[in-house]
Write a structure and sequence with these properties.
The chain contains one helix and 15 strands, in the order H-E-E-E-E-E-E-E-E-E-E-E-E-E-E-E. With 273 residues, it is an alpha+beta fold.
């Protein structure tokens, strides 16, 4: 009888351990790190966005006219020359009766400016103010007495006033920098002295009543007498107030200011040095 043949059970040889598990674990770690990085980036971007929004809100707040709640837009004569530090060659006197076109004119989103009947007219958009700086260094206001006659054509009073600006110049960022005497010729006339710095408007002398200011459509002569850093303000020859030029704006130009949708006419600008 033949003996059964036994074959040995095949033995599985132990092989090298697979590296697959480490690749999987490594991939999970990498994805985890990337995920954390994305979360951090999203948080950072959200923070930047929040900061940007806050800065925008602050800028809007800073651009408000003192005493008003409405946001204010500003227009500036883009042809304003760069500041000329040499005022020694300027004539002792200079005048502009607005009989010939020297200043900018036209329509914009901020308002309208035009010449009519030998006057320079400015009308801002509603709830904004409109600024025009003089077109050349002939209008330099350093150590000068500056006068202009101004009137509300229909007798209305802009809520942010209108008036004469001195030491006007643009900053390197093309922002307003100047001082201004504004009047409010209502039934109880008032004046205000303001300053622009880096485009922001502040009240240096708050609104103050003055019987020297003529009401309604009557013209008023505004005057600023400048000696060094001392600025004295007059209306119709009567003294109002004075301030010190703490910002050293002394080599700027003359300028004109109005607000709201009211026709304001300027005439007979004079500069005595």
């Amino acid at each position: 009888m033949a003996q059964p043949q036994w074959s040995p059970v095949p033995q599985v040889q132990p092989g090298k351990k697979s590296n697959m598990i480490w690749w999987i674990l490594g991939g999970l770690v990498v994805f985890g790190v990337i995920g954390i990085g994305l979360v951090v980036m999203i948080i950072a971007l959200a923070s930047i966005s929040s900061t940007s929004n806050n800065n925008t809100a602050n800028a809007n707040s800073n651009s408000r006219v003192i005493g008003r709640s409405a946001n204010v837009n500003v227009n500036l004569n883009e042809n304003t020359p760069t500041r000329n530090d040499n005022s020694s060659n300027l004539p002792a006197s200079f005048s502009d009766d607005f009989s010939s076109q020297k200043w900018g004119i036209g329509n914009s989103k901020f308002g309208e400016i035009w010449y009519a009947d030998d006057e320079y007219h400015m009308r801002s958009k509603d709830k904004t103010f409109l600024v025009m700086y003089a077109p050349s260094n002939d209008y330099n206001t350093e150590n000068a007495t500056v006068k202009v006659t101004v009137r509300s054509v229909d007798g209305s009073v802009p809520s942010a006033g209108f008036g004469l600006m001195v030491h006007c110049e643009q900053s390197k960022a093309k922002q307003l920098e100047d001082y201004a005497l504004l009047i409010y010729p209502g039934t109880e006339p008032e004046y205000e002295i303001i300053m622009h710095k880096a485009g922001n408007q502040t009240s240096v002398v708050s609104r103050t009543k003055s019987s020297a200011i003529r009401s309604g459509t009557n013209p008023n002569q505004l005057e600023v007498r400048i000696k060094g850093t001392d600025l004295q303000f007059y209306v119709n020859g009567q003294y109002l107030n004075h301030i010190t030029d703490t910002e050293n704006y002394k080599r700027g130009l003359a300028g004109l200011y109005t607000s709201d949708a009211i026709d304001v006419a300027f005439d007979d600008l004079e500069i005595q040095r």
